Amino acid sequence: MRFLCLHGMGTNSKILELQTAALRSELGEPHTHNFDFVEGNLQWPAAPGDDVAHLYKGFKDLNLAADEYLAYYDPNSASTILDAINDLDSYVNEAGPFDGILGFSQGAILAAMLLIRRGHHAPFSFAVFICAGTPFSDQALKNDVIELLDPVKEEGPVIFVPSAHIYGAQDPDVEHAHLLAKLCQDFGRIIYDHGAGHEISRSPRGVTEEMTSANQIVITKATLRQ
Question: Which site from 12, 74, 93, 123 is most exposed, i.e. has the minimal number of CB atoms within 10 Å?
């Protein structure tokens, strides 16, 4: 299967490769998956936190310059958010097809917004959202207004593919991940709390296997729909 992978704000694809290395390795057995990583277009200050700087073996070997830390959009700029959705939409049309999309933090929000825009004609069979936030309203952005979607105001789900929602209870923004889950259809929706913070946790022992299991369930559900 072919995955499209989107990194978090203030990081880049190289960092996401390190963050997801254990998960991708576990997910790949005994199958072969291809993971395509797409960079953000905006230079951005490096993301704070141990998840980036200390937890991942090989981080220091990247020798990243200040201008290599990126974001897909400025969360305070409607125009850059809209541009990011449009750019991703165009990229998927040109570089696809993809089977699934995996996003971390800002990348997960962007993935969700494209799925919402495409509705029942989603370009992916499933989605993996890790430490996600609440997506913005596409219609509001077109009016130069920054507004988060509210599950209470929506008439049913707005994402119609099986989805895995992976987050940590200690993430200060975990409620936004909960809101995104509520915007997704019930069928194939899997929620896994690794108990840590805003990170792709690798401890305690077994957490990678449990995250992998959540992803495999979503992939199976997507296959059943085809």
Answer: 93
92, 81, 209: which is closest to 138 by C-alpha? 81
In this prediction the pTM is: 0.92
Predicted confidence (pLDDT) per residue in 170-203, tens digit:
999 999 999 999 999 998 899 999 998 898 887 6
pLDDT digits (tens, 9 = 90+) for 6-39: 999 999 999 999 889 888 988 876 567 899 999 9
**In 58-174, which ranges are E strands?**
70-71, 100-104, 126-130, 163-167
Give the helix ranges, DSSP H, for 63-150.
Answer: 78-95, 106-118, 138-142
Asked whether 109 and 148 are in contact (CB, 8 A), the reply is no
CA distances from 207 to 3, 57, 99, 171 (A): 21, 17, 24, 16
Pairing verdict, β 100-104 and 2-6: parallel
Angstrom distance (rounded) from CA 109 to CA 114: 9
Taking alpha carbons only, the member of 162, 161, 117, 160 closest to residue 135 is 117
